[in-house]
Amino acid sequence: MRKYTNNNTKMSTKFSFKSGWESLPKNRQNEVRDKIMAALNLTTLSSFYRRKRGITEPKISEVQAIEAIFAEYNIIEGIWGSEETVNEFYEAEA
């Protein structure tokens, strides 16, 4: 498997919903993936995984849809990126 060595990887992880994904029970992940793909009108797994890893920046409507789907599974916090990455982003903005 090829690893991405993009200089923007650290910043792009703020758009990742991998943290929320890891909070899901394993037996629900396929169901959630299908719901997210339908809500975002994604037709390929690669486009889903690009969003999950934060490589593709989501639109506001996509963020809202993803958060609503995670809320169905009682995951309402810690969905996006990692705490460390989010803190670094806000410190850079200040």
Can you describe this structure?
- The protein has 94 residues and is an all-alpha fold.
- The chain has one domain.
- It is built from 6 helices and no strands.
- The protein has helices at residues 9-12, 18-23, 29-39, 45-53, 60-71, 83-93.
- Helix 3 (29-39) runs antiparallel to helix 5 (60-71).
- The N and C termini lie far apart (37 Å).
Outline the fold blueprint.
Layout: H1 9-12, H2 18-23, H3 29-39, H4 45-53, H5 60-71, H6 83-93
Helix pairs in contact: 3-5
How would you sum up this structure in a few lines?
With 94 residues, this protein is mostly helical. 56% of the residues lie in helices and 0% in strands.
Note the main attributes of this structure.
94 residues, mainly alpha, disordered N terminus
Order of helices and strands: HHHHHH
- N-C termini distance: 37 Å
- Report the total helices: 6
Low-confidence stretches: 1-11
Number of strands: 0
Domains, number: 1
Main pleated-sheet profile: none
Q: Which geometry do the CA atoms define?
A: globular
Instruction: Kindly provide the radius of gyration, computed on alpha-carbon positions and rounded to a whole number of angstroms.
Output: 13 Å
Helix proportion range: 55-70%
Oligomer: single chain
**Kindly state the mean pLDDT as a whole number?**
83
Question: How big a fraction of the residues is strand?
Answer: under 5%
What is the SS-derived class?
Answer: mainly alpha
